[in-house]
């Protein structure tokens, strides 16, 4: 979907996006759909908490960078935006945050 200008797309008229989407191969669409599902599952307060927990666990070369990362995410308007930004811009936090989030959702998980 390279070359698609989202800024030029009129609001409420997604035809160009739909054409680009249908132009993808089945493999590309399946991969993107899996990514969208993962992002959606992390698009809540618990997902944001897992992202913050993982970011705190990551080694930081600059101590102020962690707080700036958390503040930047918190400044975003909603949890889906936070999850999407983390997925796209901070892949080093994404997988670990998913694991934290998954473990937090287990009903039979016993904390020791």
Termini separation: 47 Å
pLDDT averaged over residues:
89
- Approximately how much beta-strand content do the residues carry? under 5%
Using only CA atoms, what is the Rg?
Answer: 17 Å
Portion in helices: 55-70%
Largest pleated sheet:
none
Low-confidence stretches: none
Structural class determined from secondary elements: mainly alpha
State the total count of DSSP E strands.
0
Q: How many domains is the backbone divided into?
A: 1
Shape: globular
Topology pattern, helix = H, strand = E: HHHHHH
- Distinct helical segment count: 6
Q: Tags for this entry?
A:
6 helices, 68% helix, mainly alpha, 112 residues, globular
How would you describe what is shown here?
This protein is mainly α. The protein has one domain (34-112). The chain has helices at 15-22, 26-41, 45-57, 63-75, 79-89, 91-105. Helix 3 packs parallel to helix 5 (79-89). It is globular, with a radius of gyration of 17 Å.
Q: Layout of SSEs?
A:
Elements: H1 15-22, H2 26-41, H3 45-57, H4 63-75, H5 79-89, H6 91-105
Quick overview of this protein structure:
It is built from six helices and no strands. It has 112 residues and is mostly helical. Helix 3 (45-57) packs parallel to helix 5 and helix 3 packs across helix 6 (91-105).
């Amino acid at each position: 979907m390279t070359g698609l200008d989202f800024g030029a797309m009129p609001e409420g008229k997604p035809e160009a996006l739909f054409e680009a989407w249908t132009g993808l191969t089945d493999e590309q669409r399946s991969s993107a759909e899996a990514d969208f599902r993962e992002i959606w599952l992390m698009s809540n307060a618990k997902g944001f908490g897992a992202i913050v927990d993982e970011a705190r666990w990551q080694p930081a070369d600059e101590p102020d960078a962690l707080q700036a990362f958390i503040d930047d995410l918190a400044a975003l308007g909603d949890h889906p935006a936070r999850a999407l930004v983390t997925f796209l811009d901070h892949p080093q936090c994404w997988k670990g945050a998913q694991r934290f989030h998954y473990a937090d959702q287990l009903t039979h998980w016993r904390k020791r």
